[in-house]
Amino acid sequence: MLRVLFVGDIVGKQGRKALSNHLPFLQEKYNYDLLIVNGENSAHGKGITKKIYDFFVELGVDCITMGNHTFSKDNVYSFINEADKLIRPANLQPENFGKSCHVINFKGKKIGIFNICGTIFMENTTKSPFEAFEQLLDGFPCDIKIVDLHAEATSEKYAFMQYFKNEVQMIVGTHTHVQTADEAIFENCAFISDVGMTGPYNSVLGRDTDEVLSAMIDKIKTRYTISNEEAIFSAVLVDVDLEQQKAVSIERIQIRP
Ligand SMILES: [Fe+2]
Ligand SMILES: [Fe+2]
């Protein structure tokens, strides 16, 4: 059996704090084998820095997935090619930096973690998620496949799951920052359309409420400010039967401040 804890979009300082606060208790309670976090918002809401990548690795994170904010910090170009545990969506521009699959050997099996973007309501994408993932599968044959599908549209996430549910053991959505209550097993695959964020709870998806209201109501041009409110922690716990190459359970985890 392989037990995976996947933590949704870590937003800013409060999100990072919630992650480090909750992990010891979660490790004790669930005894997971593999820890994956989405880090696309970890550096002040947009992108990631080398320092934050190192922080995740020191916490014991096995793989950091990204999203449309992968390249929001210029600093990322200086370390992404050497960041062994970091993956970025395969079908996001620019395509030539970093990698989109991280392979881990576990109990004699090859576990592949993949990162793909949706294309509906998503900028700077290249090819369709279906095409992008099929190309990755050809390049990285693995026994167990786990996908972070970073996408806005629920329909696109379901279509992707329906297409790949026989050959993939875990497909989780990220990006919307709100956890959905649709976790289920379809054929061999554990699925949830969005894991939800680990970031400031009493906010607007992690952003400062006053700022978002000035932008939306008063049309004031604002800078990107992250809320200082305490964070909600959002994750899923998935068990995969390694011999049958099949997910057997998926459980939502949500810890509110
Ligand atoms: Fe996000
Ligand atoms: Fe995103």
Give the bound compounds. Answer: fe (ii) ion
Mean pLDDT: 97
Give me the strand/helix succession.
EHEHEHEEHEHEEEEHEE
Structural class: alpha/beta
Q: Shape, please?
A: globular
Q: Assign the CATH architecture.
A: 4-Layer Sandwich
Count of distinct structural domains: 1
According to DSSP, the number of beta strands is: 12
CATH topology: Purple Acid Phosphatase, chain A, domain 2
Radius of gyration: 17 Å
Give the distance, in angstroms, between the N- and C-terminal Cα atoms.
Answer: 32 Å
| Helix coverage percent | 10-25%
- Strand fraction: 25-35%
Major β-sheet annotation? 6 strands, mixed
Regarding quaternary structure, how should these chains be classified? Answer: single chain
- Unreliably modeled segments: none
Concise summary:
With 257 residues, the protein is an alpha/beta fold. It has six helices and twelve strands. The protein has helices spanning 12-30, 50-58, 76-79, 129-139, 154-164, 209-216; strands at residues 2-7, 34-38, 63-65, 101-106, 109-117, 144-150, 170-174, 184-186, 189-192, 199-200, 231-241, 246-255.
Q: Can you put this structure into words, describing what you see?
A:
Helices cover 24% and strands 28% of the residues. The protein has 257 residues and is α/β, with parallel strands linked by helices. A hairpin with a 2-residue loop joins strand 8 and strand 9 (189-192). It is globular and about 55 Å long. The mean pLDDT is 97. Bound molecules: fe (ii) ion (2 copies).
